[in-house]
Amino acid sequence: MNIALIAHDAKKEELVNFVIAYSGVFGRHTVFATGATGAMIVEEAKLKVSRLKPGPLGGDQQIGALVAQNEIDAVIFLRDPLAALAHEPDVTALLRLCDVQCVPVASNIATAELLVKSLERGDFAWREVIHKYKVYKRSGTEG
């Protein structure tokens, strides 16, 4: 499974601690992360991470592109609901793409834990079904 990790500045340490707590789960999957969040996870959690640009500099859009291509299976995006962000349109676009592609998104630590527990149990077989259906539908062979 491919998991994207993103955190606003006020939530980065919380996400890193979460990843450390569930490093056994994250270590069995491919992890993508935006800029500083990815650097902190590599440094503190000692996990391999495919690092993208910082969120405000296009990282959110890079994750969005991976979601649009159905290459991300889950997103954990710890957002600061009290901060006004200049790149809010990028965040909104990413969340919309996750809805379009049926990619689960956790936006706080409680939903992140539910998502990771689901990953741990192997409850993501439905992602393969959705992926196969979208490929089938695009091929024009639907009846």
UniProtKB/TrEMBL annotation:
Q: What is its EC number?
A: 4.2.3.3
Q: Which terms are listed as keywords in the entry?
A: Lyase
Q: Can you tell me which residues bind substrate?
A: 8, 12, 34-37, 87
Among CDD domains, the record links this protein to:
MGS
* Superkingdom of origin: Bacteria
Q: What is annotated as the active site?
A: 60
Which EC class, in a word? Answer: lyase
Q: Which GO terms describe its biological process?
A: methylglyoxal biosynthetic process
Matching SMART domains, A to Z? MGS (SM00851)
User: Gene3D superfamilies under this entry?
Assistant: Methylglyoxal synthase-like domain
Enumerate the GO terms in the molecular function aspect.
methylglyoxal synthase activity
Checking Pfam families in the record gives:
MGS
Pinpoint the MGS-like domain residues: 1-143
Q: Which InterPro entries match?
A: Methylgl_synth, Methylglyoxal_synth_AS, MGS-like_dom, MGS-like_dom_sf
- What's a GO cellular component annotated to this UniProt protein? cytosol
Q: Which reaction does it catalyse?
A: dihydroxyacetone phosphate = methylglyoxal + phosphate
Task: Check the record and name the NCBIfam families matching this protein.
Answer: MGSA (TIGR00160), PRK05234.1 (NF003559)
Q: Give the protein's biological function.
A: Catalyzes the formation of methylglyoxal from dihydroxyacetone phosphate.
Which HAMAP family does the record associate with it? Methylglyoxal_synth
Similarity comment: Belongs to the methylglyoxal synthase family.
Q: What name does the UniProt record give this protein?
A: Methylglyoxal synthase
Q: Which organism is it from?
A: Paenibacillus contaminans
